[in-house]
Amino acid sequence: MTENILNAVQDDAVVQLAYNLVVDGEEIESEVLEYLHGHQNIIPGLENALTGLEVGDSKEVLVLAEDAYGEFDPEAVVLVTRKSFPPDFDIRLGEPMHLRDANGHVFTGVATALTDENVELDLNHPMAGKDLQFTVTILGIRPATEQEIQNGGLSHACEGCGEGCSDGCCG
Q1: Rg for the chain (alpha carbons), in Å?
Q2: One domain for residues 39 and 65
Q3: Residue 145 CA: distances (Å) to CA of 109, 115, 151
Q4: 154 within a domain of the structure (yes/no)
Q5: Domain span at residue 55?
Q6: Helix, strand, or coil here: 131?
Q7: How many domains, the chain?
Q8: Closest by alpha carbon to 126, among 1, 17, 23?
Q9: Which residues of 18-51 are buried (b: 16+ CB within 10 A; e: fewer)?
Q10: 170 in a structural domain
Q11: Which end of the chain is more exposed for a tag (fewer CB within 10 A), N or C?
Q12: Could you report the per-residue pLDDT of 110-164, keeping only the tens digit for each?
């Protein structure tokens, strides 16, 4: 049986790439990433810029804030009472915290100000309002499996979710 090989990044292709991310002149990340192209698994500005690249191609990509994590939304900075937190909850200024609302939804917030009565939380993504400068190199491209296409992403073992997923998919 002949393996189906793709020559260029396109929808329903699994793409492996190496990237460096620079924000405000500072390198933030240098990683290897594998994702399903065309299914909104990475920020839109980067995904669009990768379409058509071939294995071995390198590219500098500037992704403006609106095509990355969006503009900073001042309405996403909220004031909550300290009573909303469990008594033993450690609130640290400037550090991301995983929080759960009354409906059980988990989200991330950063405490930006504290008083005896209140906590100011910034619910914006940490990269909101920032332009992102990527240097990318395409390392590999393969056709996605039917299961990956149906799932809209790659299946990974449940290493980090801690939920004990039985089907190998964190949800």
Answers
A1: 20
A2: yes
A3: 36, 52, 10
A4: no
A5: 13-70+129-149
A6: coil
A7: 2
A8: 23
A9: ebebbeeeeeeeeeeeebbbbbeebbebbbebbe
A10: no
A11: N
A12: 999 999 999 999 999 999 999 999 999 999 999 999 999 999 999 764 444 444 4
